[in-house]
From TrEMBL:
<feature type="transmembrane region" description="Helical">
    <location>
        <begin position="291"/>
        <end position="309"/>
    </location>
</feature>
<feature type="domain" description="Integral membrane bound transporter">
    <location>
        <begin position="217"/>
        <end position="332"/>
    </location>
</feature>
<dbReference type="Pfam" id="PF13515">
    <property type="entry name" value="FUSC_2"/>
</dbReference>
<feature type="transmembrane region" description="Helical">
    <location>
        <begin position="75"/>
        <end position="94"/>
    </location>
</feature>
<keyword id="KW-0472">Membrane</keyword>
<keyword id="KW-1133">Transmembrane helix</keyword>
<feature type="transmembrane region" description="Helical">
    <location>
        <begin position="145"/>
        <end position="165"/>
    </location>
</feature>
<protein>
    <submittedName>
        <fullName>FUSC family protein</fullName>
    </submittedName>
</protein>
<dbReference type="GO" id="GO:0016020">
    <property type="term" value="C:membrane"/>
</dbReference>
<feature type="transmembrane region" description="Helical">
    <location>
        <begin position="46"/>
        <end position="63"/>
    </location>
</feature>
<keyword id="KW-0812">Transmembrane</keyword>
<feature type="transmembrane region" description="Helical">
    <location>
        <begin position="21"/>
        <end position="40"/>
    </location>
</feature>
<feature type="transmembrane region" description="Helical">
    <location>
        <begin position="100"/>
        <end position="133"/>
    </location>
</feature>
<feature type="transmembrane region" description="Helical">
    <location>
        <begin position="270"/>
        <end position="286"/>
    </location>
</feature>
<feature type="transmembrane region" description="Helical">
    <location>
        <begin position="321"/>
        <end position="342"/>
    </location>
</feature>
<dbReference type="InterPro" id="IPR049453">
    <property type="entry name" value="Memb_transporter_dom"/>
</dbReference>
């Protein structure tokens, strides 16, 4: 019954989360247009860098007030800028040194996320963005120029997506924090003294250490994809077997099969741009409906963008499928271990209720 219910959750469509055509077409256009123009100008990598920035920032939440919307756009741009700087700074280190630096900065970000709502938003996005942009910076001919291109796409998406998608469903503005700075610092310090309060940082540290070690052991096999999978699936709320992990694994397999179309047919430039356009629109439509469907269409899109706007060959497809599955397995295993430690350790500290306290956990 547990497996049946889990699979039902994996396949469930969110019927109340419909996305209007405008909300899907605008971010898709911001992703596809730079790629198309870059291909026509012989600057595919530059176009891909702009498209990556637009793709990452297009996930901006739409709010019903201008102030909340400006704050949200500023936060996603800040996350993207920090991740760009981190990726460009880490990539030249190369090998194990780069992996160690990426692990350290992601663990620190996870710890800082407990400070408050804004910190949690910025660091949560930063962790995912940093993996993608570090991988891009490794293969960029001019990493510093990549920062400007990625930020151009990101700023454009953060501003234009909410404005041009006006009239679609939006979220209520989050409440303004009423806790002072000193109180937040004390609360943050208390959260770090409880296992339940720092469990997110602990899980990030463990899963990234394990997945980045794969990248260090097999540097030519795209092992960083395991780290990206773990970063995407590791949420602040601890769940032993996340539904999103199963959705990501199944979606990645279907996405690789979708990408295999190019192994049997070399597309023309027009066909390639048309394929990217379809992926862009489909990913925006699927994002709010089902994460498995989103992963299926986003996997080939991300691989093409990170690969510099080129068709991905068969060996890369297999590598990224294997490391996606490895990242999901690592995350589920670590979640189970940490959940068990919390139950054992904090039940001993709170024997009356028998329930692990969660006072320090954010989000």
């Amino acid at each position: 019954m547990g497996l049946r219910r889990h699979m039902a959750d994996v396949l469930r469509l969110e019927r109340q989360a419909g996305v209007g055509w405008l909300a899907a077409v605008v971010p898709a256009a911001l992703i596809v247009l730079p790629i198309g123009l870059g291909l026509m100008a012989g600057q595919a990598r530059a176009g891909a860098a702009i498209a990556v920035g637009a793709m990452l920032a297009s996930n901006v939440t739409r709010y019903d007030t201008a102030r909340a919307q400006m704050e949200e756009s500023a936060l996603i741009v800040l996350s993207l800028l920090l991740a760009c700087l981190a990726g460009v700074g880490i990539a030249p280190l190369g090998g194990g040194a780069a992996d160690m630096a990426l692990w350290g900065i992601m663990t620190l970000a996870a710890l800082c996320g407990n400070f408050g709502r804004m910190a949690a938003i910025v660091t949560g996005r930063f962790i995912v963005f940093a993996v993608i942009l570090t991988e891009m910076a490794r293969h960029a001919h001019h990493p510093r120029a990549m920062v400007g291109l990625v930020m151009a796409g990101g700023v454009a998406a953060a501003i234009l997506v909410p404005v041009l998608s006006r009239g679609t469903s939006s979220s209520a503005a989050p409440p303004s924090p009423r806790v002072g700075l000193a109180a937040r610092v004390r609360r943050w310090g208390r959260s770090l003294r409880r296992l339940s309060g720092c469990q997110f940082a602990l899980r990030i540290a463990i899963v990234m250490a394990l997945t980045l070690s794969m990248d260090a052991l097999w540097p030519d096999r795209h092992g960083l994809w395991a780290g990206l999978t773990a970063a995407l699936l590791c949420r602040r709320q601890l769940e032993r077997v996340p539904v999103r992990a199963s959705q990501r694994a199944l979606g990645a397999m279907l996405g690789v099969l979708l990408s295999c179309l190019f192994l049997f047919h070399a597309p023309s430039r027009g066909e390639f741009i048309l394929f990217l356009s379809g992926l862009g629109v489909a990913s925006m439509m699927a994002r709010a409906r089902n994460y498995m469907l989103y992963s299926m269409v986003a996997t080939p899109l991300i691989m093409i963008l990170v690969g510099g706007g080129k068709v991905v060959d068969g060996a890369v497809l297999i590598d990224r499928l294997v490391f996606t599955l490895a990242g999901a397995i690592v995350l589920v295993s670590v979640n189970g271990i940490v959940a068990g430690l919390i139950r054992i350790y904090e039940t001993k500290r709170d024997p009356v209720s028998g329930i692990p306290p969660h006072g320090g956990a954010m989000l």
